[in-house]
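Model the whole thing, not chain by chain.
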Amino acid sequence: MSMPVDERGFFGEFGGAYVPEMLYPNVKELQERYVAILGERGFQDELSLLLRDFAGRPTPLFEAKRLSEGLGCEVLLKREDLLHTGAHKINNTLGQILLAKRLGRRRIIAETGAGQHGVATATVCALMGLSCVVYMGEVDMKRQALNVGRMRLLGAEVRGVGSGSRTLKDATNEAMRDWIANPHDTHYIIGSVVGPHPFPDMVARFQSVISQEMREQCLTRGGRLPTHVVACVGGGSNAMGGFFHFIGDDGVALVGVEAAGCGLASGRSAATTALGQPGILHGSRTLFMQTEDGQVEEAHSISAGLDYPGIGPQHAHLFATGRVRYVSVTDTEALAAAKLLARREGIIPALESAHAIAALQGLSLSGADRVVVVLSGRGDKDMATYLEAFGEGISDGV
Ligand SMILES: Cc1ncc(COP(=O)(O)O)c(C=O)c1O
């Protein structure tokens, strides 16, 4: 294990399982059984086969030559955007649906921001014949309308959430409430490395296939590890997956990219490490943005998947220990990076992933550097935002 969790579910001072009494039996059952179930030969075989034949793993490690030229170093893109359903989220939902089946659960619930986790959950529920309810903030339903349609076509019920900022945090609250009301037949497939123990550790394990492949692919290509791994951080699952097998390699700089929204000082951002404080959010002790009296602050990002006021406990720990450097990128910078990647490499990234691309400029890279960027998802879902943001300028040269 590259990032061990203690028996109470803590990574250093972050983590744990702070859940209402009604949920305690479910969480306890998961805590007691997840390691054994994930370790079963039959489970591993079934998951590997689905990851290969249904999801499309391994994903390529693509040398972005024109981007590399512009930055003066080698840039490799880990193409999670090429996975079935269009993002890394399917790695986790395939794992959790197999777990839910082994726990005898027939009903699945999930929260979603950008809709990618909702689509990935609806997809695996259709595959396995289980019923599916997805909670989604009303703001996100509007900006990610394509994914709402996809979930419905896949047979899921999408329940709009009209409370708070009507985004991911509020959808997560509603999903938690549903689980509390239906603890016996329902499994909650959490979409990131957040929530009570064992979710952060379990989701990181399912996503760790990203860095497992990256490591092998880097060694096959020139026999050397990357100097940097860069990934965007919403709750932090694609980043944890991308960092996982490099945490013990001191020579590999790990960079998490958060959403600065309209700017760090604007009061409209989602840059948790820059602005957050320790506290308990969605069942674990972690860092999140708070008002003066400790309430959860509303986050803002143009990207629905990064529009979350917290990060998972592993990231809080990696931040506190200094192993990962966290930077932030504004809405405007992310939009420009999306356009750049489209024009330079023929890849339209998800707005979330565009944040990781945008961060490259600030990293003082040089000729000897080999940077792997986790391209967590594709941009189809964000076309309406791109069209609105670029307007007439959409056909300008770079
Ligand atoms: C494409 C994509 N990347 C990144 C994220 C952020 O999530 P996480 O930080 O868990 O990877 C999302 C969330 O919806 C997403 O859809």
